[in-house]
Write a structure and sequence with these properties.
The structure is a homodimer of 337-residue chains. Chain A is of the alpha/beta class. The first copy, chain A, has ten helices and 15 strands. In chain A, strands 3, 4, 5, 6, 7, 14 and 15 form a seven-stranded mixed beta sheet that branches. In chain A, strands 10-9-8-11-12-13 form a six-stranded parallel beta sheet. The longest helix of chain A has 17 residues. The interface between A and B is medium-sized, with 33 and 33 residues.
């Protein structure tokens, strides 16, 4: 028997999650049944969407049950295999949740080639966040050369790829991020054309200046005040793919509220607002995404940044920091051996 | 010289328009120049979108200037022609504004065949409102067989066609209208599957019952409380074409407000909200629209209702009643000889 640790949801957060919402447990892992693999987690992805799942509100997915681990993809090594396709030692990515070990169905697992790219990229730029950026921007945002594309949380794994793909497609990339260190990074390292600091008092003016020709695509992953600042700047036929509303995940009551004129602006400017979850496009587009984005990384057209936290025990704090924007790049927890 | 009358915008309305916002003028019509026609108006269309234009707020079109006539399509007869393609006595449809006579460019005019359909249909079911329904529903709403399609102002020229085309495409049609006379008409005369009375105290319950399988397409021409009642009933991948927000045109201050959870619902249910103006699809689709809808009328698959007000002098009052939902069918003013 393998002894494992996991975090489970102890209580549902009201507003910002606390350390006490999560409880560390020791469990003995059962043996894998036929078709299953036992994985040991090496890297665990910590993502904003988890805040929605632990709220208990039904969204596009079932909420995390009290007593169960919050969801999360992880890079793991196969420790035991009851499926002929997989061998002990294989490196895979799977949705394990916040656990040091997991039993997974062999068919739900994707094999990684550590020679091709750093395995952690499978949790970020070459994983679900990168795919969300790629599919949402290209299928729904549809940037044309010369368009202005605006994205929030722009140093994160979704936003940074949205801006860089926009550039590859000949559009102007405007990134919104919190604080001067992040906004500088957008210009100096990721090649964005302009930036705006949503923590700055003159954020609205910064955004207007950064998007002086108006906004053709707003890739929405923030919501709240950022959405409200973007809205008056939309151009006719603007597209707004919505993949997240991170600023609202912790909200307990009525926040800034939406622009009263939202529907009128949608009408007057023939705006498209379109929510999506990456799964909609996965089967159709994942292979092309991997080919395109890994190629762009090799060619130096796409850069990515990871923010790696050491130690499984720090997962809840890392998650809480993520919701406050304290991470800088894709947040990943590295598990000790 | 021909002596004409016209209504001009005297002052901009605050909230509900008053009779005093419009002023009746007598003018002498100048002679048509080369390429122009002088029309005598027979039927004038009075439409909700006019409320937006006279507000002075820039929308998808320039606002009506003070001292100019509000916009409106009309059926008119050519009284003088300075274009070789047109003869005195031709019956045409053109954007004349609220006038008994108009000078128009020959190239902006569409000829009508009075033998084919009642000429008034060119202002309603076979004109701009009908085209708005056809293009918005088919290009943006994309109803599939079995879908539930909900539309407001459902006895009006847009809503009634939306519901009937939904039926032709194998979807369920649910109409929202004000008062029992109109909701009964939806079921008995237009073949809608269900209805809900937005003036009724239990409107929300009525709508929930009428759309018991949820809502796949909401064709938005109302806004306000109707939008808010529809929102929680949306199914995954619901589509919301927005062609108008009639309930908000008279609003002076903050009305009910939008659902706080709007973006989260858009995300969780992969909803599409898409504003449009009929002109977007005109060149591409108008001929097919005329063929399809006139065919459906002949086959008895599409019915329409007109609400004809006698006398040009009653145009402002007819318009004011329209914004209160007092008309029953496409509102048209008939001008005396």
């Amino acid at each position: 028997m393998v002894s494992a640790q996991r975090f489970v949801l102890a209580t549902r957060p009201e507003g910002e999650p606390t350390r006490g919402n999560f409880q560390l447990e020791r469990i003995e892992m059962p043996d894998p049944r036929p078709g299953e693999l036992l994985l040991r987690t090496q890297y665990l992805s910590v993502d904003p969407y988890v805040r929605g799942r632990i709220s208990g509100i039904r969204s596009y997915a079932e909420p995390t049950a009290i007593g169960s681990p919050p969801p999360g993809h992880a890079v793991g090594v196969v420790e035991r295999s009851e499926d002929s396709q997989w061998s002990v030692g294989d490196i895979v990515v799977a949705d394990t949740g916040w656990q040091t070990h997991a039993l997974v169905c062999a068919s739900d697992v994707r094999k990684l080639d550590p020679g091709l790219a750093s395995v952690t990229t499978s949790l970020g730029v070459l994983g679900m966040p990168g795919f969300t950026a790629y599919a949402g921007l290209l299928k729904l945002g549809k940037p044309k050369p010369g368009d202005t594309v605006v994205v929030g949380a722009a140093t994160g794994p979704v936003g940074s790829l949205v801006g860089q793909i926009a550039k590859i497609r000949g559009a102007r990339a405007v990134g919104i991020a919190g604080g001067p260190q992040k906004t500088s990074f957008l210009l100096s390292d990721l090649g964005f054309d302009a930036s705006a600091d949503h923590r700055s008092k003159d954020f609205g003016d910064q955004l207007r200046a950064a998007a002086s020709d108006g906004i053709d695509v707003y890739f929405e992953n923030i919501g709240g005040e950022v959405f409200n600042a973007v809205f008056p700047l939309l151009n006719p036929f603007a597209r707004i793919p919505v993949c997240g509303v991170m600023s609202e995940y912790n909200s307990t009551s009525s926040r800034p509220g939406l622009p009263q004129q939202l529907l009128r602006t949608v009408l007057n400017k023939s705006v498209t607002i379109r929510g999506f979850v990456f799964t909609e496009f996965w089967d159709q587009l994942f292979d092309r995404f991997l080919t395109d984005v890994s190629g762009w990384i090799r060619e130096g057209k796409v850069r990515y940044r990871e923010d790696i936290v050491e130690g499984f025990e720090n997962t809840p704090d890392a998650f809480r920091g993520l919701l406050r924007g304290e991470n800088f790049g894709k947040l990943i927890v590295r598990l000790s051996e």
